[in-house]
Design a protein that fits this description.
Elements (H helix, E strand, L loop, with lengths): L22 E4 L2 E7 L6 E8 L4 E4 L6 H12 L7 E5 L5 H4 L2 H8 L2 E4 L1 H12 L7 H9 L4 H8 L18 E2 L5 E4 L2 E8 L6 E6 L4 E5 L21 H13 L7 E4 L8 H22 L10 H5 L8 H17 L3 E5 L5 E5 L2
Parallel strand pairs: 4-5, 5-6, 6-7, 11-12
Antiparallel strand pairs: 1-2, 2-3, 3-4, 8-9, 9-10, 10-11, 13-14
The protein binds zinc ion.
Zinc ion binds next to loops.
Length: 348
Amino acid sequence: MDGVQPPAIRYPWSEPPAPGEAIEVADGVLWMRLPLPMALDHVNVYALDDGDSWTVIDTGMSSKKTRGIWEQLMSGPLSGKPVKRIVVTHHHPDHVGNAGWFQSEHGAELITSRTAWLFARMLTLDVQENWPQETLDFYRSAGMAADVLEKRMAERPFNFSDTVYPMPLGFTRIKQGDVIHMGGRDWDVHMGNGHAPEHATFWSRDDNLVLTGDQIISSISPNLGVYATEPMADPVSDWLEACERLQSLAHPDQLVLGGHKLPFTGLPVRMRQLIENHHGALARLIDELDTPKAAADCFAPLFKRPIREGEYGLALVEAVAHLNHLYHIGSVSRSRRVDGAWEYQRKG
Ligand SMILES: [Zn+2]
């Protein structure tokens, strides 16, 4: 129709639920929030009413505080019905953190992708008191600033076991193409990728709800990171493939329930943004690589804003991701700098 604006992104709720409270975003679907001790200070979790019990989507980071909020939620908005199933979208601690607690303390079943379960359990069991040499080598290869590296080495290394409750043996696998019944609806399971491998998303067949975890978020671009576990990974390719595939499922009126920020409608617009953000970043990056640069020298073209201390780690792994992508598609070559960092330069 002439003169009608394309549907933009809209936020039906301008404020999130307070800690320990829930907002019913659709019949039998509760939206709740748990705090996170970092720059991104919250995670969204959801409870789906299965009649005699609840299915919970994601669990927050493991801490006494978040489990206290869960207890408050279970005796409040979840009105004393048991949580029988935990669905975890991906293996990151702010999503899987309390899954093991629901399993061992509440007898809940854990449902997630095989990759998410393997990663979460492997990393939780892999307790390191000192920085692994592989991680230090990875940071040096990325050109991490000497003062940042020195400060990190003086601190306890990042351990999943500090933020993820022990995970007992056993889970139920979901995979691409499955259908799962939750909250009185059938949901198609579509696997995302790039932010986390084999990241589950759920698309209701019976109404317009989509549960997207961190694959699709409203107002921030999900972090695409490379880690010492797979230094040559290309999560940018994985991300673009997944987003282009999920884009074909998007409708303007779907209510998108993501892992952070606010629920929204206007998914086709958001999918285009999530894809174009990275094409734009890659184009700015390749422009800068007329002279050789390490990952840590590429924040300005990638992020177009100053990177604060609390964001340095995420910025660095995302810079490596974009450089790895350019390297794998053959647009840049790389060589070792005297300090051990890989420097990348545009070809031709
Ligand atoms: Zn995540």
